[in-house]
Structures are given as C-alpha cells and as structure tokens.
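@channel sequence for tomorrow's demo:
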Amino acid sequence: MININPTEQFSDLVNLIQTLRGPNGCPWDKEQTHESLKSNLIEESYETLNAIDNNDQQNLSEELGDVLLQILFHSDIAEKNDEFTINDVIYSLQKKLIERHPHVFRLKTSLSSNEVVSQWEEIKKQNLSSKGLTSALDSVTPNLPGLMYATKIQRKAASYGLDWKDIDGVIEKLQEEILEYKKADTKTSKQEELGDIFFTLVNFARWIDIDSEIALQESTSKFITRFKRIENYCTRTETKFNELSFEEKENLWEKSKSTKI
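structure tokens (generated this afternoon):
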C-alpha cells in the first residue's frame, strides 16, 4: 500500500530504492554506478522538457518522478560507497537556497527579479574560491549541450563586464566571422571559423533574450513536420522524391510550409 503522507511517502521511496539495490533486490539495479546512469539522467531530463513543451501535465508528473528516481539512485550508490547520503543532498540544497536568498531569509528586503539574479551571481562569485575554482567560468559545467554551454559561458563573462556595448557590436562580429569563414581554405580553419559563427549566433540570441537551444529545437521540429508532409504527399501520389528535379523538390518544399500539400 502506498503511503499518502508526504514526509513518510518520501522515506518509503528512499527505502524502496534501498530494497531494490539491497542484497535481495534487483540484479540490474545493484550493478549500476554513477557512470552507468549518466545517460539515464540526461534522457529523463529531456523527456521532462518534452512533457513541458507539450503541456502534458500528467506526463510531466511522471517524468519528474523519473528524474527524482535518478537522484535517489545516485544518492544510494554514494551512500554505499561512503561518499554522501540523500540527507546530505537535501541539506546542501537547503543551505544553498538560504544562502542565496538573503533578501528572503536574512535581510527581509524587496528586490526585483533582475536584482535577485545579480545577487545570486555575486554570491556564487564569493563561493568560487572555497571550491578551489580559479576562474569564474569554471563554475559552468562543460557537459551541457553545446548551445546551452556557450550561452552560460557568455552570461558569466558578461556578469564580469566582458560584453558588447549594444547589439550592433554583436551583428558586426557575426558579419566579420562569416567573412573569415569565406576566407578559410582548409577543413581545420573552416571548422574553427564555423565554431566562431555558432558562438556569435548564440551571443546574438542572448542579446535578444531568446534561448538558442529552444530556437534550434523548434526549427528542427518545423523541418521534420515539413519533410513528413512531403513524404506523405509522395506516398499518396506514388511519387519518388529522389527522382524529382531540384525545381520540383523546391516547389514541394515551399508547399510543405502550409497544409496545402
């Protein structure tokens, strides 16, 4: 029987994980390590984001549970390795939230959302040295998706004053990088210049307050939708897409931008 008391329910869940990974538990669960579960955590996080994008509340509840499962899994692995426990995870989170919200728990002052973000960043800067980090950029995890990682690096640098005066500077930089790409004459140099174009595009997205990761995902999703419309059209009309001329393919693509195909 599942307990409905929130506090007892969480304890029951922790005990359930411990049973699964205990002497008489599941062989697969007992074999897992921090390393073996890395991809699971990433996958469950993206499935949660997908539920949010689809406004699927029921699925979101389930996916959040799957993310919580990963946290409990790693905590149990750590406990058995004498590293830390789920209680340490919770304590660290509580401590961090209290420390980074002095306007709520200590100073009792009113701040705007932007002031809260600035305060959060300032407190993080003060904690860098205590963690042995020599650079402000070291606090940004390099395992993030490329666009997200670049955005966070740029935001961090901007918080220290390393930023363009206005968006015109970003646009000029983008134009400069495209010209440099055109001049590149080796694969290595082209890769380097293309990377600079991507990095500057991410910076441009940051300046206009658009999440580059989400923007790219939406464009990819749009491309998939249009491609599938063409596939369905070819199936209905018994047309072989590969045998069409470039002009015919381009015409179909233009039509796929609407439902008139």
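heads up for whoever presents: The mean pLDDT is 90.
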